[in-house]
Amino acid sequence: SPPFSEKLKEVDPPMTPKAMKLNDETMQDTTPSMPTPPIASNATIGANVDIQIAPARPIGLGAMDVDDHGINIGVLRCRRCDSRLVSPGRGLLTDLSAAVAGVPFLPGPDPGMDVQRYKWWWKLRGTNDFDGIGVSRPIDTEHGAVRFIMCGDCQEMPIGYMLDISTNAWLACERVVQQNKDLANDAEDFQLPPGIDINYLKQLMKSQAERKAKMGEYSITFEEKRLGMVLADVEDGPGVEVVAFTEHEGKPGPAEVSEQIKPGDRIIKVQDLNTEGMDYTQVLTLIVNAPRPITIHFERDANNKAIVAPRRQHEEWVPNGP
């Protein structure tokens, strides 16, 4: 069957949603059906989508207030601890009701609850569009490796998911609260955690800026499936680096042909997904499973004087999942 990313393109026009209100600890369907703008599931954030202005909806759990492009107007918050998850203008309201071959489902929010399928989701371009979340380790499912999303403060989970074949992130509308943006307080939402020394934080930011000044960052977009580079975990610290190039049928791969990559360069992002904390098998799986074109972001130490390493014979990498 087609992969989940292809199934998203086959979603039928959305049906009429019902606004949801928070009633103590349960959701009660308290409002009648109302017209809704046609939200296209294969649209991308920032695209010029022909969508009518959505009618007013209650603010609360499962609320779906959007602008004329289908983007969230309010702040998306954790239903348990009220932490800010997503600021206004970042999530595209998407109907996944017809994506039967993908995931739009989540395990129950409470122990013992069955898996729940949802129609309406907030689509985000990647983890950088969030203000405070955590992401689980990859969980193998019949649809491939899935990472579940949780609140970064109270670990309320799961509220959404990511697939290893894509950098997109999905939040279930009925698992998060939307707040009127005029009631949000940036000073409260982004204050320092208790016990953090502001001077220490400033010094940390300064040292990170100095480190970045010594490092060169660049990115390359590849159309090819086989890239021809060997990755490994960095021996003297965290990260994944290029250690060699490979050849196939006597020819160098696209990574070497680009003449930009050196052995010792580290991979810091694949598409918009930060690879910090991943080992080389996870990064390789992400690269192999990602649709083309794929953009890989590299980082090079200014002291890296490496020359091109001898080529190795290409060996097919079998990624995690189907």
SSE inventory with pairings:
Elements: H1 4-7, E1 21-23, E2 26-28, E3 60-61, E4 75-78, E5 84-86, E6 92-95, E7 105-106, E8 116-117, E9 120-124, E10 133-135, E11 139-141, E12 144-151, E13 160-163, E14 169-172, E15 176-179, H2 186-189, H3 198-214, E16 215-222, E17 229-233, E18 240-248, E19 251-252, H4 254-257, E20 266-270, E21 273-274, H5 280-289, E22 294-301, E23 312-313
Parallel strand pairs: 18-23
Antiparallel strand pairs: 1-2, 3-15, 4-5, 4-15, 6-9, 7-8, 9-14, 10-12, 11-12, 12-13, 13-14, 16-22, 17-18, 18-19, 18-20, 20-21, 20-22
Written description of the protein model:
By secondary structure, this protein is an alpha+beta fold. Helices cover 12% and strands 30% of the residues. It has five helices and 23 strands. The protein has helices spanning 4-7, 186-189, 198-214, 254-257, 280-289; strands at residues 21-23, 26-28, 60-61, 75-78, 84-86, 92-95, 105-106, 116-117, 120-124, 133-135, 139-141, 144-151, 160-163, 169-172, 176-179, 215-222, 229-233, 240-248, 251-252, 266-270, 273-274, 294-301, 312-313. The strands form five sheets. Strands 16, 17, 18, 19, 20, 21, 22 and 23 form an eight-stranded mixed β-sheet that branches. Strands 6, 9, 10, 11, 12, 13 and 14 form a seven-stranded antiparallel β-sheet that branches. Strands 3-15-4-5 form a four-stranded antiparallel β-sheet, with no helix packed on it. The N and C termini lie close together (12 Å). Mean pLDDT is 74; it is low at 1-58.
